[in-house]
Design a protein that fits this description.
Length: 401
């Protein structure tokens, strides 16, 4: 799309509907593009049709909470994720939400700080589901985003504040064995100063070691210009911050808004093979693409109200929509939409779980990762976990397990 395209929530929805209505049912066009309805997923093939709900050899007797993040280890191809210390677990009583935002309501009171013996970070064998590593007890309040750097170090964002104000609103770097190596941000102190965070959503590390953090979760609920203005005045964030490999703040870009380079909850990030940074701008129903200096390059609009994005080495985009609902993204069906980085066109769709709370749209997870064989791993959030039956789901390619 050109820089001159003006964003309008209504126009984006209508134009997508027109596009979907113009394409044929399941068929291949002459140029190889899959035809179908990108809004509902009808007529679009599912490349990973075998579903394993409640995936993983989960620890017996330990309640497993909701989650929102997944990544693939670049060295051995296995799966890194987390769960929120049992909070939001199926059949569990609600817990006291942490202070300072995050973790209340739909998160089921997610609060790892009240259970400092519960290690939330997991590494699973991608084939067997065996636990290969488990650590992070006593460090975080509400883990939210997770990323693995080229050296195999594990980065996790902590997007809420503990009741005593000593933890939260930070990004933590762990060694592959769980040693805490670095923490960015000021523990327990949300803010919008350089190097400070206010509900950090995700973290990703570039090949040169530069660290990118997407910050600010509240914008998705701001649906009027008045609300956006009030959010800015209150110091709410919606931005990407860049740090050097040693954690020194370099720069940031973005604010609450709807223009290109502005966000309403930059929920997830991924790099493509060209080194471009893709940001899942959930509240604006789009993917925004930047260079690593923060210059806006392009957008994609066919992936829904996106919670998680993952790009494979062959530049296939996997974006999971967990948030489309009857009132906030009418008619769009939740699930995983798949397409190539070079076009705004959906070529694959993995459907959501049926859900009586969203009878036409279903319930899908928030975090997503794809292994070398094309198997898709999903982290189930508060909207989907009870329908998925557990915190993690695996969608296997045909003939896989």
């Amino acid at each position: 799309m050109s820089r001159s395209r003006a964003l309008s929530f209504t126009l984006a929805t209508v134009s997508a509907a027109v596009l979907a209505g113009c394409v044929a049912d399941a068929a291949n066009s002459g140029d190889g593009m899959v035809m179908g309805n990108s809004i509902t997923g009808e007529g679009i093939p599912n490349p990973a049709p075998t579903t394993t709900a409640n995936w993983g050899q989960l620890p017996a007797g330990r309640p497993m909470g909701t989650t929102a993040g997944m990544d693939i280890d670049p060295n051995d191809g296995h799966v890194w994720t987390y769960e929120r210390c049992g909070q939001g677990a199926l059949n569990a009583a609600p817990a006291t939400p942490p202070a300072g935002g995050g973790g209340g309501g739909g998160f089921g009171g997610a609060n790892c700080s009240t259970d400092p013996t519960h290690p939330p970070v997991y590494k699973f064998d991608r084939n067997t589901g065996e636990i290969l590593a488990n650590f992070g007890a006593g460090v975080m309040v509400t883990p939210h985003g997770i990323g693995v750097d080229p050296q195999g170090n594990v980065w996790v964002t902590d997007f809420a504040r503990s009741a005593d104000g000593t933890k939260g609103h930070q990004v933590h770097k762990f060694s592959p064995t769980g040693e805490l190596l670095m923490s960015l941000g000021i523990a327990g102190q949300p803010g919008n100063a350089d190097g400070q965070f206010n509900e950090p959503n995700d973290v990703i590390v570039a090949p040169d070691g530069s660290i990118f953090v997407s910050d600010g979760h509240s914008g998705q609920g701001m649906t009027t210009q008045q609300a956006l203005n009030a959010g800015r005045e209150a110091g709410q964030t919606a931005r990407i911050s860049k740090f050097s490999p040693d954690g020194t703040f370099i720069s940031s870009w973005g604010q609450l808004g709807t223009l290109h380079g502005e966000f309403r909850t930059p929920h997830s990030m991924a790099f493509d093979s060209q080194g471009r940074l893709w940001v899942a701008d959930r509240g604006n129903h789009r993917l925004e693409i930047f260079d690593q200096e923060g210059n806006y390059l392009d957008s994609r609009y066919q992936y829904g109200r996106i919670s998680g994005v993952f790009i494979t080495p062959d530049d296939m985009v996997y974006a999971i929509d967990s948030e489309s609902g009857a009132l906030n993204h009418t008619n769009w069906v939740n699930g995983v939409r798949i397409g190539h980085v070079d076009s705004d066109w959906i070529t694959g769709f993995i459907p959501a779980f049926p859900a009586e709370t969203r009878p036409y749209q279903g319930a899908a997870g928030e975090g997503i990762a794809v292994d070398a064989d094309g198997n898709v791993f999903v982290a189930e959030g508060p909207n989907s976990m009870r329908f998925a039956g557990g915190p993690f789901t695996k969608y296997s390619v045909a003939g896989g397990m």
